[in-house]
Design brief:
Rossmann fold; 6 helices
């Protein structure tokens, strides 16, 4: 019994650390790629560069809230929600499109879609390159009053509410995916890819975890995109 209690305490402490360390004001688009498994038994035998995708999110009306609101909380249809406001992705060196494209390249390389996948191949060691546009990277999540109450009671409260979740809506979409050869000739028009998620996800008292939830779903999105690429390109003659 003591052994079980010790493990329970460790698990709860880990949940608290996740809430207050991983969900921080400086947000990045990233996730662990070490556990990604190959999506096919044999990679498509080409080396591919992932270019930095064009960011057209501001042209899409449904994204307007993320760019206008400087806070990570907002009332939407009368309900207080956490949002992945653009304000918290601001980075002098790495824009959203830079980070998004970079993690996609890492994911595709790890999942062995192609023999090699490189982000921004400035030396042009690859013989093909993939372009695309980011249409949506949108998240909203119902604010958790339970998490807020727990936070007001310090460690004990945080322990009691460490598993708190709330309903989240996440939409990720890319468009006009195209594969070119180094001569600039279009090899394959792959098209658009979109996924929507509506489920209970980890929540915290300060609306930072909508950002880590976005990263979690981006990992799933890129997994499904990797499968789509294999399906679309498997019968192309290279």
């Amino acid at each position: 019994m003591k052994y079980l209690n010790k493990n329970l305490i460790i698990a709860l402490l880990f949940a608290i650390i996740f809430s207050f360390v991983s969900c921080t004001p400086t947000q990045k688009i990233r996730y662990d790629t070490n556990d990604i498994i190959p999506v096919s038994l044999s990679p498509i035998p080409i080396a591919v560069e992932i270019t930095e995708f064009a960011d057209i999110r501001e042209e899409v009306a449904e994204n307007e809230l993320l760019f206008k609101c400087k806070q990570n909380q907002k009332k939407i249809d009368g309900v207080k929600k956490c949002i992945n406001s653009e304000e918290f992705y601001k980075n002098d060196k790495e824009s959203v499109s830079f980070q998004f494209s970079k993690v996609l390249a890492m994911h595709l390389n790890q999942s062995k879609v192609f023999s090699t996948t490189i982000f921004k191949d400035t030396l042009q060691t690859t013989n093909y390159y993939l372009t695309g546009k980011i249409v949506r990277f949108y998240g909203e999540q119902v604010f958790s009053t339970s998490a807020l109450v727990g936070a007001q009671f310090g460690l004990i409260g945080a322990l009691a509410t460490s598993g708190t979740t709330s309903l989240a809506k996440i939409v990720i979409e890319v468009s006009e995916l195209k594969l070119y050869n180094r001569e600039g000739e279009l090899v394959k028009y792959i098209g658009d890819f979109r996924k929507e998620y509506a489920e209970e996800l980890h929540a915290d008292a300060y609306c930072w975890c909508i950002f880590s939830n976005m990263n979690e779903k981006l990992k799933d999105f890129n997994y499904e995109l990797a499968r789509k690429l294999v399906s679309e390109l498997r019968n192309v003659s290279f």
